[in-house]
Write a structure and sequence with these properties.
11-stranded parallel β-sheet; 6-stranded parallel barrel
Length: 437
């Protein structure tokens, strides 16, 4: 009688595996036909080690390694192919889904994945960090009093892929910029959606005495909103932020209630606002300006637009660009370039003051591509200048001409064309464009 051994085989479930450097230990299942003894080894233990008996892999570093299983013949089975292997690639990114506690991102870190727990994610002082397809969804629970992402000091954020960050409690922003005297810079080619709580900014500061430093956006597509009384980008309720600078990318900023789209929230303040490029759309839901100050004694510094395409609107008593409602203010408004479309839904000016508020001054030069400003509803409000019940605002100068009336017809202009239009209700639009030589 001739006894023939069985034909054995081994194979891994996956021919290749991709992991992140902070992922937990794992096993790629091995299918075995027969009763041979298997041992495992890693070609590069500086990337990952493997338990020789169980095949469980522990990630050590980043790079690529080959995990190999070797089986021996037995009395019952013979193995023509005695090895099986797979390639393991370890990405240097930090996988938020694998975190088991709070994490402070260090310089050079790439964050990715969806945060699975209610953990505080911060950026170390001075660190440059990439956000790559992250999702941080705050739960709006007072047990977790922090922002979706907190900058501990100066921070540089590069966005790639699609990213979404939401604060964990109503008083906290989606992204908390660093303290006063620091700068948060956002750039890249991806998208970022940042959502603050009821009393906080989307990007900036939180509620009641909170503050933050400067905010600079120079790339990517950034959508920032407050669920309530904060600015989309800037300060929260009764809070403050530093200067806001936008030089590139596409920016959408909005507040659903009394804050500005870009600027200050309710009873709040922010520094200078500068836009020199990109596509910017900013809106306030109720009594704040589209770009500028919020409601009830809020303030912002100078507003300067030198380029880009800017669309700013207030749905109620604030200006499109300028100050919000009720004792609010803004500094000097200067528009020297770009295409600007600003309008107020009710008692505010298109560019200037909100109802019962002020602006420092308005200067529009001949270097613009186009400026269009609309007042709606209240005939006392100007398209460019004073809102309803203005509190003694400063001078209005358009291409060197001092404007003293809401009924101005462009008299005195030499470098700009002036057009006026209305749909027959109380709205009024002024459009300024360069004269062609």
């Amino acid at each position: 009688m001739t006894v023939v051994k069985g034909e054995g085989s081994i194979s891994f479930a996956e021919a290749s595996v991709e992991k992140y450097k902070n992922d937990a230990a794992f096993t790629n299942p091995l299918t075995i036909v027969g009763d041979g003894v298997v041992t495992y080894e890693s070609s590069d233990p500086t990337v990952a080690t493997v338990n020789a008996t169980s095949g469980e892999v522990t990630i050590v570093g980043v790079g690529t390694t080959t995990i190999t299983a070797t089986i021996t013949d037995t009395d019952e089975y013979a193995y023509e192919k005695k090895t099986a292997s797979y390639e393991l690639s370890v990405d240097p990114a930090i996988n938020l889904a694998a975190l088991s506690g709070d994490y402070i991102a260090q310089n050079g870190d790439v964050l990715t994945g969806t945060l699975a727990g209610n953990y505080k994610i911060s950026i170390a002082a001075g660190a440059s960090v990439e956000l790559k397809d992250i999702t941080i969804n705050g739960v709006d629970d007072e047990a977790y009093k922090w922002a979706g992402l907190t900058c501990l000091y100066d921070a540089n954020i590069t966005i790639t892929g699609a990213n979404s960050v939401k604060g964990f409690y109503e008083d906290y922003p989606g992204i908390q910029a660093g303290p006063v005297g620091t700068t948060l810079t956002i750039s890249g080619t991806g998208s970022l959606t940042a959502t603050g709580g009821d009393d906080a900014a989307g990007i900036g500061s939180g509620y009641d005495g909170a503050s933050c430093g400067d905010i600079t956006i120079c790339g990517g597509t950034v959508t920032a909103s407050s669920a309530g009384y904060g600015a989309g980008i800037g300060s929260g309720y009764n809070a403050s932020s530093g200067a806001i600078t936008i030089s590139g990318g596409t920016v959408y900023a909005s507040s659903s209630m009394d804050g500005a789209g870009i600027g200050s929230g309710h009873k709040a303040s922010c520094g200078d606002i500068t836009i020199s490029g990109g596509m910017v759309t900013a809106s306030s839901g109720d009594w704040g300006a589209g770009i500028g100050s919020g409601f009830s004694g809020s303030s912002c510094g100078n507003i300067t637009i030198t380029g880009g395409t800017v669309n700013a609107s207030s749905s109620s008593y604030g200006a499109g660009i300028g100050s919000g409602f009720s004792g609010s203010s803004c500094g000097a408004i200067t528009i020297s370039g770009g295409t600007v479309n600003a309008n107020s839904g009710q008692y505010g000016a298109g560019i200037g003051s909100g109802s019962d508020s002020t602006f420092g001054s308005i200067t529009i030069t001949a270097g613009i591509t186009q400026v269009q400003a609309t007042r709606n509803y209240a005939t006392a409000a100007w398209p460019i200048g004073k809102g309803f019940s203005d509190n003694d605002s400063g001078a209005v100068s358009i291409a060197g001409v001092t404007v003293t009336s809401k009924d101005w017809d462009g008299t005195g202009l030499t470098d700009l064309n002036f057009a006026t239009s209305s749909t027959g209700s109380n709205n009024l639009t002024w459009t300024l464009t360069p004269k062609v030589p």
